[in-house]
Design a protein that fits this description.
The chain is α+β, with helices and mostly antiparallel strands. It contains four helices and 14 strands. It has a four-stranded antiparallel β-sheet. The chain has a four-stranded antiparallel β-sheet with strand order 5-6-2-8. Strands 11-12-10-14 form a four-stranded antiparallel β-sheet.
């Protein structure tokens, strides 16, 4: 049965209608989703994206599936190449693989991003503070015990958060935000923790990511 399963994967990889499929082990996704599920995270999560090799742009998909030796399931994704996978212990146990077929032959690779998706309503300073705190907790959790606890100095320095808008940055954002095109870098400090001032419309936000110092 295992040899037939591997042969099926090889056939998928060589017979794609659009481009060579990207084949990924499900357990890597599961391990990161498990960190989120075991933690106390209201907003933070891990986003899974396929990006092009050359320019790291969104990789549009033509098809996707999740496969075990005995079953095949459809893979949910969007037009930005984001993959939405179930948190399923059975898929992890049965060594499932994720097969994603890009529309073009430019070559794609997996990119994992710590991010937050906000409710579609006015977002307060206190909520943005909460997102920032969850990012700071999640980064070492995802890095594992060795790096997260024993070698925390290796972790990147988080300056604040980045707000990614659906279109151009609104004209009414605070003047001290560092904004370019559709994104703003925002420094967060402790004065935001209990501040209920509404700062941004959640309907206009695509997502929030950490602002990491280079």
């Amino acid at each position: 049965m295992k040899s037939k399963f591997l042969a099926l994967l090889a056939l998928s990889a060589s017979f794609g209608a659009f481009a060579e499929p990207v084949v990924m082990s499900y357990d890597g996704f599961y391990d990161r989703m498990e960190v989120i599920n075991e933690g106390d995270y209201q907003y933070a999560r891990v986003g899974f994206y396929l990006k092009t090799f050359e320019s790291a742009k969104e990789c549009e998909l033509a098809d996707g599936k999740i496969m075990t030796e005995k079953q095949t399931y459809p893979l949910t994704y969007n037009e930005r190449g984001q993959l939405f996978l179930p948190f399923d212990k059975e898929l992890d146990t049965h060594k499932a693989v994720v097969v994603a077929t890009p529309k073009s032959a430019s070559g794609c690779q997996l990119s994992m991003q710590i991010e937050a998706k906000m409710p579609q309503q006015p977002i307060t300073a206190a909520q943005l503070y909460k997102v920032h705190q969850e990012f700071e907790e999640l980064l070492p959790d995802l890095s594992g015990f060795f790096v997260g606890k024993l070698m925390s100095f290796l972790l990147p320095d988080q300056q604040g958060i980045q707000l990614h808008f659906n279109t151009a940055v609104p004209t009414d954002v605070p003047s001290d935000w560092q904004c370019v095109e559709m994104r703003c870098k925002v420094k967060i400090d402790d004065t935001w923790q209990a501040n209920e001032r509404k700062l941004v419309d959640g309907n206009k936000l695509a997502r929030i990511t950490p602002w990491i110092a280079k």
